[in-house]
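Subject: Enoyl reductase (ER) domain-containing protein structure
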Amino acid sequence: MKACGVSGAGKGVALLELPEPSSPGPGQVLVAVEAAGVGPWDELLNGAGWDVGLRPPAALGVEGAGRVLAVGAGVTGFAVGDRVLAHEAPLPGGSGFWAERVLVNADHAAACPSGLDAVHAAALPVNGLTAVQALEKLGLGRGQRLLITNGGGATGALAVQLAAAMGIEVTATASAAAAERLLGLGATEVVDYHDPNWAAEVRGGFDAALTIATGTADAALPVVRDGGRLCSLTSDAPAEERGITSWDLYVEPDAAQLAQLAEQAAAGTLKLAPEPQPLSEGPAAFDRAVTGRAGGKKIVLTP
């Protein structure tokens, strides 16, 4: 089958021809991939920090959407032909979603609503689950204040929307070009991250900060109130001080959370900005994602 991935440990991303996945084992489903998400985390999959059980030669990608082709023993929630979306890690077949077919654990997959096309569904899993899990752990409520760095990115834009829907007052850092879009998504204030003194431009005393841009956690900490919280998505949470709880968060598969996100996206209450690209453009899409040149769009590969 056609795929995009790596031929060996430490090898560059390239187009590949891979063997078909094995038949689904107990609790697994075989999915015909219709769209697969690309993100900066894909750089970590090939022995560079995130062990997802990749067994090269293998396709990259830990999220996507498609149709069930076969179900393993004990699977009761899905049948052949069902549309699903999933974030999967570790990968049960040792190969990912940037391929024509992939094996997935059925309990990590969510039903794809009829109003959600495959490209938008594939844009949702990792970014959406990351935003939900971060906000859940931050534990903010109506009227509290949240700072989000890189609010214009795929995860940041979803976090802005989800937080605003909870009645949380959101200040986001982003480019000036993204300001109008983020205000429309529910942000109260948008600060240009190009300004080296951006932290001095915001009103301090935030109840929490969600740092999504690398290197912003240290700058965000001083504007969080005593006893507040800081969650870093870039593995650079600063040491705790002034009673502020500070931690790094790593996304986990969660079918129930993903199903809720998919329903919100299908209903139009959660806006996505996918940029579909053919699988043949996979290496170029990978380069754009890992070097931060996606322009706030979520790149999605379509086999």
